[in-house]
Amino acid sequence: MPQDINIPGLETSDILTMENTFAEHGNEVDEIISKKPPFIVRWGTLFFVILLLIIGLISWFIQYPDIVTAKAKLSCVNPPTQITAKTDGKLIKITVKENQNVDSGQILGYMESVANVESVKKVDGQINAVIDLMNQKRSDEIVHFFPEYQSQKSLSDLGELQLPYQTFIQSFIAFRDFLNSGFYFRKKNMLLTDMQNFKKLHDVATNQKQLYQQDLSLSNENFNANQTLVDEKIISAMEYRNEKSKLIAKQLSLPQINASIISNESQQNDKKKEIAELDNQVAIQQSSFLQALQTIKSQVQAWEYKYVLKAPISGIISFTGFLQENQEIKISESLFSIQPSNTSYFVEMWIPQHNLGKVKQGQEVLLKFQAYPFEQYGSVIGKIHNIKSIPTDSGFLAKVNLPRGLHTNYKKSLQFRDGLIAQADIITEEMRLPQRFYYNIVKQIRR
What we know:
- This protein is α+β, with helices and mostly antiparallel strands and 447 residues long.
- The chain has helices at 12-34, 39-61, 117-135, 152-156, 162-176, 183-231, 237-307, 374-377, 433-446; strands at residues 63-77, 81-84, 89-94, 101-102, 107-111, 308-310, 315-319, 327-329, 334-339, 344-351, 364-369, 380-392, 395-401, 421-432.
- A hairpin with a 2-residue loop joins strand 12 (380-392) and strand 13 (395-401).
- The longest helix is centred in the middle third of the chain and has 71 residues, at 237-307.
- The protein is elongated.
């Protein structure tokens, strides 16, 4: 039987009600009160405290990198070169394949033109050969070039170069007459022959003068001897006058010989003048031909620049689109891209003034490019090479080298695009996890 319940302050009716309740449920209450609590209930609080201590101890040994975020842009030394169309028209031929190694000056394709490509190549080869011969002072050998200039079909095959080529051929024909097989060369040979003949006549006249001077010297001696004989009255005065007349006659002949020599020398000078004038005409014509040669060369180069696609550098070529022959191309449209073999990449990074003091040269940078989501492609690892001391509107400019190029930590290669924007995470120092939580809490409080 339940004991009487005596609780001060309660009325008798309430006490009776409670007694009845205990009487009805006495067994259940005794069971609850007498049952021992589980182990986890009795020691749970202690275990929870110990767990917190263990987590705190483990977190103290976990180091978390402190990161400064900055904006960055990809750049490079010797960037890929773009080959663009210089005219509207069809791409009539492609001579290379994707990812092929090409050399500088190699032909990549041809744009549509009125001129026949092979005919232009032939003319260009002849022009280059003539230039080489002219530089080697072997101009006489160029007479065998351009044999097809009289053919109307050959001229029509040159298309846009037809009129410039005809102008050049006129200069070539005019200059050909000044070569060794031309009219002016034959004329010069005749003048040189005349010069040789005049020299021979001059030598004959000079020898004749020497002989005559010797004869005159002998005549003077004879006359002086006759004068002595006259003084001694050995010969008559008439004989003396006859000898004197002979001497005077010989003396009169000497000026005639001198006049003949002078006339010969004058004629030689006239021939020299003609040869000099002829040489001057040859020089003028040669200069005019060289000018015409350089003009047609530049015009052929202008045609090639417009209609022939050439590689400006050596490297690996890639197509900028889905190119195919006979495709319509617009002017300035990018067709090919050539990646040089000596390209080196780097990143321009703008460090904000916030936490600038933590950033130092040599620190590691994780670059996450917007064009290549880092969740899929990973991050490119770089190192800070130097930091400029002069600030800009965007922050302090720093150069970041890429030791592994554009290879990510996911072992994927990114394709270079000049000016790709990236988020740069600069790893400044390793911080313990509790310290990180503390600084974050302080930062939130300050805000």
